[in-house]
Amino acid sequence: MKHNYVLDGHKAMYHLDRVKGWLNGERIAPITIDWALTRACTYKCTYCYGQLQENPRKKITKKIAFRFLDDAAEIGVKATSLVSDGESTCSPILYDVITHGKAVGLDMALGTNGYLLRDDKLEEILPCLTYLRFNISAGEPERYAHIMGCDKSGYDNVCNTIKKCVEIKEENGLTVTLGLQMVLMPEFMDQIIPLTKLGKELGVDYLVIKHCSDDESGSLGIDYSKYFNMIPILKDAENYSDDDYFVKVKWSKILSEGARKYSQCFGPPFILQMSGSGLVAPCGMLFNDKYNKFHIGNIVDTPFKEIWQSERYWKVMDFIASDKFDARTDCGCLCLQHKVNEFLWDLKRGNIKSEDYNLREIPPAHINFI
After folding, report:
1. What whole-number distance in Å separates Cα of residue 224 and Cα of residue 253?
2. Which of 351, 332, 317 is nearest to 28 (CA)?
3. Residue 183: helix, strand or coil by DSSP?
4. What are 41-50's pLDDT values in tens digits?
5. Are 107 and 368 in contact (CB under 8 A)?
6. 20-39 burial, b if ≥16 CB within 10 A, otherwise e?
7. Sheet of strand 246-249: strand arrangement
8. pTM above the 0.85 mark?
């Protein structure tokens, strides 16, 4: 198969200069920043973790977003992904943000439900994106409407937009990766194969099937033990892969039962998250206002470069990396930084050495989205 994606793992080992700097106590710039342009969303997905992340909302204008991108590029950030806790297509500045980020040297990516994504803007933004991922957790219209919390017409709307993206990519020989992501709750098992078939029919590059994260209180009520009953059907889904279409299950998280082997959190200095409210925090699981002791600043009020350079930023990062913090009890499970955390935990404890880490002869795709 010709694909070269890492969809169940991480790529931090391909940035050993940054890793070694961190090990030596340097104040490193993030490699990847995951953010959103708004907290708003057109859908009400039944599995949405964003509903658990409410914090005071501020408006990210084009001036503020451009200032953030300029700062990020200046300090050495390599990529930003518009995903986080809001639907960035709800923001009128989305298309300008993508093109500006690319222009200042950042790898740009977008995760979206696709409903508001403008077909007339696709030729403008697709050449500027490393990847465009559609969040879609069902392969049939009625189930789509129920799971994604929208009108049934949304299914056809989004499928048509995906087809348009595929056409533009093929006609122009673009390198952008087009993917689908299924957030799998146990009750969505009936949609695994229909969505797998849909992805192949639409002509996208990949479908990734991932776990559903929950907070430390279990607010979404995920029974992780039920994932084990799905192993046969998930393996069947992966068998739809061929040279042009890759189906990947995030086995390491789906079968982990939400458990962590690490207690300290080392990942956020490498992969930082920002809320669609402009809030800068170590990770999305700490966006909620009840975790304000971990909140660092807001790009609406303060340039990101100043936030990153501040003592507050590094005080928070040092605290979550200390034995005063326990990620096993103080955080939700299976966070964005989880695989990077496992890697850094093993490095810190001497279980592995960075210079001995086996790297692919051909680096994986999307290398700056770690």
Report:
1. 10
2. 317
3. strand
4. 999 998 888 7
5. yes
6. eebeeeeebbbbbbbbbbbb
7. 246-249, 206-210, 177-183, 129-135, 107-112, 79-82, 32-35, 271-274, 279-281, 297-298
8. yes
